Amino acid sequence: MRFALAALMMMAMVPDGAMARSEIAAQAREAAVALEEASLSLDAADGARDRVRALTQTIQAFETGLTAMREGLRQAAINEAQLSARLQSRDEEVAQLFGALQSIGSDTSPVVLLHPEGPMGTARAGMLLAELTPALNRQADQLRRDLEEVQTLRALQVDAAIRMKTGLTEIQAARTALNQAMADRTDLPMRFTADPVRTAILIASSETLEGFASGLSEIATDAIEPAPLTLQGQIGALPLPVQGVILRRAGEADAAGVKRPGVIVATLPQAIVITPTAATIRYTGPLLDFGNVVILEPRANTLFVLAGLETVYGEAGQVIAGGTPIGLMGGDVSESGDTLSPLREGSGPERSETLYIEVRDNTTSQDPLDWFRTDKDE
């Protein structure tokens, strides 16, 4: 009896999840606000003077809101699973608790309070009962709070799933509108005109990215000298071209043992890729085994190589401002896919696409993490 009483009192000391629940709810509300603002931005983008920039900012806002909503949904699902498992594992204890409460109040006869050992035994039993009753009440209150938390978390998940589906539909509409806006854009200045024949010869003769990059200057015609582009004060603080997480650093071997001088960023399907600063587009299109590639020249003798895109915007020779979209990642964003799975996050199945980023300065490879700002810097 004493062991059972001690166990019940220890269980009654388990803290409730009110704080965790409120944090998840706050996170869900912030994500909902972000998605609502992105939706309003999408409506405003139709009449914006610079529609490309407006749509780019809208897509980025949707990506941020969806990522936050997905994280809140994942945390809610994890907490609900933990609570449900804890409640399920305590089914026997709950049955004993209800049995004890029922036995206390099932008979109003004073005979049940008498002890075989007489008045002293009755007094001891009364003292034990007085200690037990508050512990049982606390245990019942804890179970009630756990059940309420499970119900709250489930309601949050239902609401978040609805908002995510709506957000996914709207961001896809924004991507479609961006594709059209980029196709209609004709106001970008040209620094040079690419020679398609010489470009094809260079691609065919290049066995490495280094060899291709070295020959880029030889395939331009009608080149003019634009206003000098500079990275003064930006090195180390440039934003990553895509929202994502660093999957592999420079010099780290991949599954096949191949080491590359660039970094690999895991992204969501169809994530937008932008230029981190003003630059001249030196090349767009397929290259070697890198898939679709965009090579940017932010200043003389410096190249940013972005590889692994599905859709690319712009053409060689154009001078673009920082924040200009240069393409979209590939992948399936269907609502039945892994993008809605709340238990998958990070660089796993949800971030199924990878963007390779390489920096070359004066023909020498540089560590991109020395140039770009990442989460580790915040």
Defining key terms:
Glucose Permease (Domain IIA); elongated; alpha+beta; 8-stranded antiparallel beta sheet; 378 residues; disordered N terminus
* Average pLDDT taken over every residue: 76
Distance between the termini: 55 Å
**What fraction strand?**
15-25%
Looking at CATH, which topology of the largest domain would you report?
Answer: Glucose Permease (Domain IIA)
Give the helix/strand class: alpha+beta
Describe this structure in words.
This protein has 378 residues and is of the alpha+beta class. The protein has seven helices and 15 strands. Strands 4, 5, 7, 8, 9, 11, 13 and 14 form an eight-stranded antiparallel beta sheet that branches. Helix 2 runs antiparallel to helix 3 (51-89) and helix 3 (51-89) runs antiparallel to helix 5. It is elongated and about 110 Å long. The chain starts with a helix and ends in a 5-residue tail after the last strand.
Task: Spell out the blueprint of helices and strands.
Blueprint: H1 2-11, H2 18-45, H3 51-89, H4 91-105, H5 119-184, E1 193-194, H6 196-205, H7 209-215, E2 220-221, E3 238-239, E4 244-248, E5 263-267, E6 272-274, E7 279-286, E8 292-299, E9 302-309, E10 311-312, E11 319-320, E12 325-328, E13 353-361, E14 364-366, E15 372-373
Parallel strand pairs: 3-15
Antiparallel strand pairs: 1-2, 4-5, 5-13, 6-12, 7-8, 7-11, 8-9, 9-13, 10-12, 13-14
Helix pairs in contact: 1-5, 2-3, 2-5, 3-5, 4-5
Short description:
This protein has 378 residues and is α+β, with helices and mostly antiparallel strands. It has 7 helices and 15 strands. It has helices at 2-11, 18-45, 51-89, 91-105, 119-184, 196-205, 209-215; strands at residues 193-194, 220-221, 238-239, 244-248, 263-267, 272-274, 279-286, 292-299, 302-309, 311-312, 319-320, 325-328, 353-361, 364-366, 372-373.
